[in-house]
Amino acid sequence: MFVKIVNPSKINGEIMQPGEDVLELDDADARALIESGSAVEAEMTPAPRKPEDGDQLGEAIRSATDQLDADDGEAWTKSGKPKTEAIEAILGYSVTAAERDAALADA
Prior knowledge:
The protein is of the alpha+beta class. The chain folds into two domains: 2-41; 54-105, no CATH class. Helix content is 38%, strand content 14%. It is built from four helices and five strands. Helix 2 (54-67) packs across helix 3 (84-91) and helix 2 crosses helix 4 (97-105). The longest helix has 14 residues, at 54-67. The protein is elongated and about 55 Å long. The model has no long low-confidence stretch (mean pLDDT 90).
């Protein structure tokens, strides 16, 4: 079940603040949060979460880069690197230039 936090709540040991991304929880946990007034049911898909593992993040960045149109001048820097904004638009989370550079160096 998808929920959106409306009051600070501790979920899996992490304090979640109102206004953060939509979360997918098992039905029992979601219903408990809704009944306590800490969350409301959400109808949308949760926002993608940035991988904490560097290898997974690198794979995601390389995959997103492969999806970019090579002829789209708006997607690439003058030096030929994919713009972080173009990668972010595909992945749905922020990517730094250093993360992009590290991912492409590992390719």
